[in-house]
């Protein structure tokens, strides 16, 4: 046994000398040399002496250690102006926050119109059609790029992202205008609408296989008409898979409701489109998607290629504006009682237990002794920050001078998450991590609306602003 330990000790010593020798001999430009390593380790004695800090970090959640206790309780959840909503929705383990948020923006209209205690649209119904349309968009993308090599960047991007459960506002508009909406009870959630990962993985596997078949048919000199004929058969298989995972979407359904006074309505049969037109009755073309993207010129119109879910709908197009203007539009909308689609980089400085988004929540710099100082522009350019989650913006609280202090977000992570299902966002956090806002045209300035007349600047699908893969 002693010989064994001696052998191990000798091997360790030899290993140290070999490592040092290699460091000394390696003179390739840019490598870690012995001299460089000494400089890197110059502060090691100080680190090694901080045994309490090392013990704490190696044995605990870093967020709990970085929690700024002096900030706890400094942000309250009271709001002077709040749009009343009923019931918190729950997207469960899925990236459908964009869809929940879009439908949650429409929901107060129905609740107020019919004086309901509560109401929720079927997210599963819209999600079914979203997945079928995205499958078609991918296959059409493959047909469109059939003359490009397999390692072309666009072709590679398509095969990397054949389908997802993420999205943005324009996809909600496209879905409800083409397929309508239904109450939740007409098509309830399923195991796989609430847990989308495996379904999306299998759909993606099948679509990649189908994409290669289409490309090989083109190599065999098959005409586009033949490719699209096969594509229809492929979509038939995708439709079958969706029905098995999500259920069959209803063509008609019967709806009756009980109002806040307990009065029960007569039952009425609708198609999904009839329900949307009669019960919701909003013109979604009157809403404008706006963005704060400091990496690009403001007061310009941008569109992102393939950032849509349907072949027959336009790409996501947005007006790029300073944050200050977006706040003015948001405040006007809330004061008028209209909720908004809002998306942000929700994971940054989020205290999920308290339901607070604040720049003061966590102090990582004090733990590591290093500074995290990138401004929003640099975070976007380096993919450190981007829009990852959508919520409904439903409240604002102002100072004595009328300036916004904090904002209220209706989330879709269930009522147990955050503060009874809501998140309170400080105005300073809004500046740093807010990205997208959808407002009705009547709340926007003439200068902002004039941008819509511009020819949009097209961005590639691999642009930092293309982030439909929402936070879970």
Supply database-style keywords.
472 residues; alpha+beta; Cathepsin B, Chain A; 2 domains; twelve-stranded mixed sheet; two-stranded antiparallel sheet; 18 helices; 14 strands; 43% helix; globular
Topology:
Elements: H1 2-25, H2 34-40, H3 44-49, H4 51-59, H5 62-66, E1 81-82, H6 97-114, H7 123-144, H8 153-160, H9 169-179, H10 191-194, H11 197-219, H12 224-246, E2 253-255, E3 268-270, H13 272-280, E4 287-291, E5 300-304, E6 316-320, H14 323-335, E7 340-344, E8 350-351, E9 356-357, H15 364-368, H16 376-381, E10 389-398, E11 404-410, E12 422-426, H17 427-433, E13 434-440, H18 446-450, E14 457-459
Parallel strand pairs: 4-6, 5-14, 9-12
Antiparallel strand pairs: 1-10, 2-3, 4-13, 5-6, 7-10, 7-13, 8-9, 10-11, 11-12
Helix pairs in contact: 6-9, 7-11, 7-12, 11-12
Task: Please characterize this protein's 3D structure.
By secondary structure, the chain is α+β, with helices and mostly antiparallel strands. The protein has two domains: 63-92 and 284-472, Cysteine proteinases (Cathepsin B, Chain A); 120-282, Cathepsin B, Chain A, CATH 3.90.70.10. Helix content is 43%, strand content 14%. The protein has helices at residues 2-25, 34-40, 44-49, 51-59, 62-66, 97-114, 123-144, 153-160, 169-179, 191-194, 197-219, 224-246, 272-280, 323-335, 364-368, 376-381, 427-433, 446-450, and strands at 81-82, 253-255, 268-270, 287-291, 300-304, 316-320, 340-344, 350-351, 356-357, 389-398, 404-410, 422-426, 434-440, 457-459. Strands 1, 4, 5, 6, 7, 8, 9, 10, 11, 12, 13 and 14 form a twelve-stranded mixed beta sheet that branches. Strand 10 (389-398) and strand 11 (404-410) form a beta hairpin. The chain starts with a helix and ends in a 13-residue tail after the last strand. 36% of the residues are buried.
């Amino acid at each position: 046994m002693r010989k064994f330990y001696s052998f191990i000790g000798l091997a360790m010593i030899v290993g140290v000398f070999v490592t040092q020798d290699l460091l000394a001999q390696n003179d390739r430009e840019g490598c870690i040399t012995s001299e460089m390593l000494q400089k890197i380790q110059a502060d090691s004695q100080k680190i090694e002496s901080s045994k309490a800090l090392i013990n704490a970090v190696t044995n605990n959640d870093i967020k709990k250690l970085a929690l700024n206790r002096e900030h706890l309780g400094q942000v309250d959840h009271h709001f002077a102006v709040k749009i009343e909503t009923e019931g918190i929705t729950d997207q469960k383990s899925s990236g459908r926050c964009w869809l929940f948020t879009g439908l949650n923006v429409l929901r107060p209209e129905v609740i107020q119109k019919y004086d309901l205690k509560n109401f929720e649209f079927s997210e599963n119904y819209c999600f079914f059609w979203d997945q079928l349309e995205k499958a078609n968009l991918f296959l059409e993308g493959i047909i469109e790029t059939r003359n490009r090599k397999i390692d072309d960047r666009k072709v590679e991007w398509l095969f990397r992202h054949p389908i997802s459960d993420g999205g943005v506002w324009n996809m909600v508009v496209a879905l409800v205008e083409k397929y309508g909406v239904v109450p939740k009870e007409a098509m309830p959630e399923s195991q796989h609408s609430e847990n989308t990962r495996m379904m999306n993985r299998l759909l993606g596997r099948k679509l990649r296989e189908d994409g290669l078949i289409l490309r090989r048919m083109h190599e065999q000199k098959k005409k586009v008409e033949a490719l699209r004929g096969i594509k229809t058969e492929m979509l038939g298989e995708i439709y079958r898979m969706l029905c098995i995972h999500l259920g069959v979407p209803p063509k008609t359904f019967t709806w009756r409701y009980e109002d806040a006074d307990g009065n029960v309505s007569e039952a009425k049969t609708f198609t999904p489109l009839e329900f949307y037109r009669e019960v919701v009755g909003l013109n979604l073309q009157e809403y404008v998607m706006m963005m704060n993207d400091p990496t690009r010129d403001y007061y310009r119109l941008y569109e992102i290629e393939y950032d849509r879910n349907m072949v027959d709908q336009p790409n996501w197009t947005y007006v790029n504006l300073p944050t200050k203007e977006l706040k003015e539009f948001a405040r006007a909308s809330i004061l008028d009682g209209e909720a908004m689609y809002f998306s942000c980089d929700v994971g940054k400085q989020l205290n999920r237990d308290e339901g607070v988004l604040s720049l003061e929540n966590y102090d990582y710099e004090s733990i590591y002794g290093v500074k995290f100082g990138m401004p929003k522009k640099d975070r976007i350019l380096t993919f450190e920050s981007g829009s990852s989650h959508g919520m409904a913006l439903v409240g604002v609280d102002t100072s004595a001078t009328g300036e916004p202090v904090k904002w209220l977000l209706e989330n879709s992570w269930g009522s147990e998450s955050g503060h009874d299902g809501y998140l309170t966002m400080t105005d300073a956090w809004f500046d740093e991590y807010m990205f997208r806002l959808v407002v009705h045209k009547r709340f926007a300035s003439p200068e902002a609306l004039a941008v819509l007349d511009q020819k949009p600047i097209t961005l590639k699908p691999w642009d930092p602003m293309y982030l439909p893969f929402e936070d879970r």
